[in-house]
Amino acid sequence: MRELLADAERLLAAARALSADEAAARAEVQRALSSLRARSARADLAAIPVARLKDVTEGRLRLGTLEQAGYTTVLDVLDATPYALQLLPGIGARTAAQVRAAAAQIARAAEETVAVRVDVDRHDDAETTALLVALHRLVAAGPDLPRAVRAARTVQDGLAAPLPAARPARGRLRMLVAGRDGRRQAREAVAEVARLLTEADASGARLLLAQASVDLLRPQASGIEAWADFELRPPEYYNLLAEIAALEPDRVAAEGFLPDAVSARVRAQELDDAHRRVSLRGYQAFGARFALAQRRVILGDEMGLGKTVQAIAAIAHLSARGDRHFLVACPASVLINWTREVESRSTLKAYRLHGPDRGAAVAEWTRTGGVAVTTIDSLHRLPVPAEVGVGMLVVDEAHYVKNPAARRSQAVAEWCARTDRVLFLTGTPMENRLEEFRSLVGHLRPDMVPAVRGGDAAAGPQSFRRAVAPIYLRRNQEDVLTELPDLVMVDEWEEFSPADLAAYRAAVAEGNFMAMRRAAYAVPESSAKLQRLLELVEEAAGNGLKVVVFSYFRDVVAAVHRALDGRAHGPITGDLPAAARQRAVDAFTAARGHAVLLGQIQAGGLGLNLQAASVVIICEPQVKPTMESQAVGRAHRMGQTRKVQAHRLLTADSVDQRMLDILRDKTKIFDAYARRSDLAESTPDAVDISEQTLARRIVEEEQQRLALPPEASPPEEPGRVTRTCR
Known about the structure:
Layout: H1 2-45, H2 53-56, H3 64-68, H4 74-79, H5 82-86, H6 93-113, H7 126-140, H8 145-159, H9 162-165, H10 172-177, H11 179-203, H12 205-216, H13 223-232, H14 234-244, H15 251-254, H16 260-267, H17 282-294, E1 296-299, H18 307-320, E2 325-330, H19 335-345, E3 350-352, H20 358-368, E4 370-375, E5 390-395, H21 407-418, E6 422-425, H22 434-444, H23 454-458, H24 461-467, E7 472-473, H25 477-480, E8 487-494, H26 498-510, H27 513-517, H28 528-542, E9 546-551, H29 554-563, E10 569-572, H30 578-590, E11 595-600, H31 601-604, E12 615-618, H32 625-633, E13 644-651, H33 655-668, H34 672-675, H35 678-682, H36 691-705
């Protein structure tokens, strides 16, 4: 019994230590954030005229003397001492105190509302670096930290009362002097402590607390490490910062302008995160709750707001509550993205029900449960036993099933009929496509189709959303990403089509590094990358956004141009005169609404301002990391008024993945200040890895992985690597 209570005290001490360490880490973020906000607020105060002090005091102050003495802004007053103010004619101690109090009130309001931004081009900014270093400790602790903190709170709340009450049970003498009631209470308390320890062991709380404590007590990261980590996974930093800094947007906008009754119902919905491995922004948590509370809905958030993560959060909740099988139907171009996201953002297993191994995957998914991912086009022939209950069906890019006569639409309709919970995802604003929306509603809630009227759409997006609130939720970037982030980076993982895979294998055998890099576009008609690019362009068109597409290769740019049927400006290539380049950019900028500009990344990534674009698509990863940064920077720069989305198209198990693995390691050891200097920005070769070294290493690794002997080849050419004997 004594050992039992000692064990409980050790567990309680561990829980208290973790809570204290986590609170200290958050306090460090708050201190860094306060410093950054104070600096930004001072800049704002320097632009606020001193006359605004009258607004705070309802016009009671006479400010003529201050203005005549050169106090023209609120910052001037805030920086003045009471003594200096009292030296002015007509200003006594009382007036000086009132003036300073009014200025302080405006300063507090400015600090609370000031925009918090992380400028990736300012590695030398001390306040921002301090903030990222403080955030790094919490981000590096991983997605289990919030769960560990809750476990610590549960342990503390559970043991707070019974552990002191059980003290007489530590020895016979104590029990003897405790009296009859004392002994009874002590035995009951010991039983309660034993129960709580059993629960802690069953839930893995001990290991969770121990690992979280170790993570929080690691040595502080350097500024360079924090910046490098931030650029590798900015969403984790942005989400945590938004939570700690309370940067969430206006509640009405974050909830999609839903009626109060619907919003209240959604907010009351619980959201279990036991199987989720990613933190959510407030609007994302609301989206997941909306899907759960309303059961059969369309989530229509603008691209870049994390619809996939919200769907995974809803699935993870249902899994924690006992559902075992889930099904995702999506275009083939995002199938691998879904499998990767499910397994990285949750503890659930993802099964790819597509391709030659589909039968085995179906059998394994049926037996063990998890998230099955298949294509919309193959949904009609998915051999799932009727007795397998699907906890939720998710249909991504749901506007693809708008035609009721199409086989894919009929297959979705059949699955909707056999599934209680259904979530449609689409980034296309449905108020602009009323007939499509009515078709989607017909799959989910046929009873609501008559309620979808053209008049509601004509009255504006907010009126439309309120009218269809039980089934449709949409948020725009400008409504919910009010401060962070300025830049959303998305890796779009695809798989080779059979024809492209054949071209890739031939390029690997030949040792042709450049051919390997563009093999995903070898047969444009069946290219998964090109198909995904067209989907991104279409979604951007639906939102009226301008898109710039970059590739290193001229033939890839040409293939994109043909796939767009010539509906693009440019292309900007290396041999295009500077005046012609600028004319293409000017025409792109002047176009009303959606437009597309094409260019080679080495030509379009330097010297051009593309603030009109808010979507950047990079067709393949670049050998020089700074080349990608420069290309994205053409759009994500001063003068850009919208959030910028940068999509990088990648092929799994290929040269793309090998390049990212190598360059990620290289990026971590870049000297941040040299890398951000004017020389580094203008001369990528000064800091980037040798192209020939990278090419040789990747070609050899891919030849070994694919068991392809190198073909006999002529003397080495640019982009061609021959294997050397060792």
